[in-house]
Amino acid sequence: MNQHDTDIIIAGGGLAGATLALAMARTLPQLRVTVVEAFPLSPDALPDSYQPSYDARSTALAWGSRLIFEELGLWQRLSEHATPIRHIHVSDRGHFGATRLNAADHHQEALGYVADNRWMGLCLMRELLKTGVVWEAPAEVTDMQPLPGGVRVTLGAESGQRELSARCLVVADGGRSGLREKLGFRVNEQAYDQHALIANVSTSHSHDYTAYERFTDAGPMALLPHGSPTRAGNTAALVWTLDNHALDDLLALSDDDKCQRLQQRFGWRLGRFTRIGECSHYPLTLKTVDESVRPGVVLVGNAAHTLHPVAGQGFNLALRGLMALVEQFRVATQRELPLGSLPVLKDYQARHRQDWQQTVRFSDSLIQLFGNHLPLVTTARDAGLMGLDLLPGAKRWFARQAMGMGGRRADIRTPGTLSTEPGNHD
Ligand SMILES: Cc1cc2nc3c(=O)[nH]c(=O)nc-3n(C[C@H](O)[C@H](O)[C@H](O)COP(=O)(O)OP(=O)(O)OC[C@H]3O[C@@H](n4cnc5c(N)ncnc54)[C@H](O)[C@@H]3O)c2cc1C
User: Would you indicate the residue range of the signal peptide (predicted)?
Assistant: First the structure.
């Protein structure tokens, strides 16, 4: 077991890679974990305090993700700068259908939360500093070769190249994963021919802790509550999906005109849009892999699946996958099975598959359904939204998906929840 330089190498220390490292340190402290991160950030050079900025990028965390962060002992700290989502309002511009989900109906204080990515990163790094996880940055994993019972990974850094052997390589290098391509994983790609425009906006009315998902003829948009409501106004995090032409049009406008355009599309539920911050945009593609494992290698986070951001499911799905992987490693360690062996990794893949297939279908069908302007489909979706309001079972199902509670997830605290019975191991 100790013939390798380390046990697990995580390529990529973004939200997925850093969370996995922490979950490994919490659950399997006897294993040696090395994170290799291309960006020059290090746990030793962290700012002492956090100053939220108006232009901070944020993530909608489902209720299920809060439970995971609680298990990791991180929630209390994270919640200091997380805005609760107490209501979700889904509507279709120009049509009568609408539905509203309330946390109180599900006996919970929130359906989810909105947290700044930078804040989540800082909380994770502060915790990692207290563990034995080794952080290599700036450095890149540039190649990987299989070894008996493990892998040999090539690290490129300013100081030169070196090799590191491990029992398993976890690829967490993001949606444009260079390693996934290099290692020959087959990617299914479905371009939506759209971009997501991201910006924070100020509104004259209180967000009242409501997340709005609105489907318009110019593309779906989400407005998430961001920060506490104040008398001076509120901030909401905007994710607006636009086709390429509409995006170019919008970006050419002044900030005042952008607010006005947003007002036309969104309406007045949040009062007047008074300010829009720095706008960034991303091309939208649904990327999935049929196989996320190879002997000694497993893909996680956006490297395994990149979803449409309007449904706010990408990181939440990734988190559940990370916990399933940690549980798989725990069971394998208990049974003295090789961590990177194909049967162990395939068992993980099989357990996570139902969750990711369901989540991908949920996000994709929302976009397909609400992106369609055929009268029959619009009528059907209005009926669907009304049906959600009228049928408690359907609404509960929708709420569970939105809260990240729709998929099966292994409990990292309960020993033996997985039935790993691998046959031959490499
Ligand atoms: C516009 C937008 C809005 C979103 N909103 C939501 C939301 O509301 N809710 C939600 O659940 N999800 C959301 N998502 C998805 C979410 O942002 C991602 O799932 C999340 O960031 C996890 O990313 P990751 O860690 O897998 O990849 P990344 O964040 O891309 O991190 C990859 C890391 O790997 C490093 N790296 C790259 N190559 C190498 C290499 N060869 N060696 C070493 N390091 C390397 C990079 O420097 C980077 O730090 C959104 C995504 C987008 C684009």
Answer: none
Atom of ligand 1 nearest to the CA of 303: 26
Instruction: Give the mutation target among 181, 315, 363, 401 for probing the ligand 1 site: most ligand atoms within 8 A of CB.
Output: 315
By most ligand atoms within 8 Å of CB, the mutation choice from 22, 35, 37, 298 for ligand 1 is 37
Give the tokens for residue 15: 């939200």
Query: Rounded to the nearest whole angstrom, what is the distance from the C-alpha of residue 282 to the centroid of ligand 1?
Result: 12
What CATH architecture is 8-190+285-402?
Answer: 3-Layer(bba) Sandwich (3.50)
Distance CA 29, CA 33 (A): 9
From the CA of 141, give the closest atom in ligand 1: 42
- Digit-by-digit pLDDT tens for the chain (426 residues) are 568 999 999 999 999 999 999 999 999 999 999 999 999 877 777 887 888 888 889 998 988 899 999 999 999 999 999 999 999 888 876 655 677 888 898 888 998 999 999 999 999 999 999 999 999 999 999 999 999 899 999 999 887 899 999 999 999 999 998 999 999 999 999 887 888 899 999 999 999 999 998 877 777 788 999 988 766 568 999 988 888 899 999 999 999 999 999 999 999 999 999 999 999 998 888 889 989 999 999 999 999 998 877 667 889 999 999 999 999 999 999 999 999 999 999 999 999 998 888 888 877 776 665 555 544 444 445 545 444 454 455 555 555 555 555 554 544 343 333 333 333 333
Distance (Å, rounded) from C-alpha 307 to C-alpha 321?
A: 14
Cα separation, 295 vs 426, in Å, equals 8
338 Cβ inside 6 Å of ligand 1: no
Q: Which of these, 13, 16, 59, 18, lies nearest to 313 by C-alpha position?
A: 59
Q: Which atom of ligand 1 is nearest to the CA of 196?
A: 1
> Ligand 1 in contact with 302 (CB < 6 A)?
yes
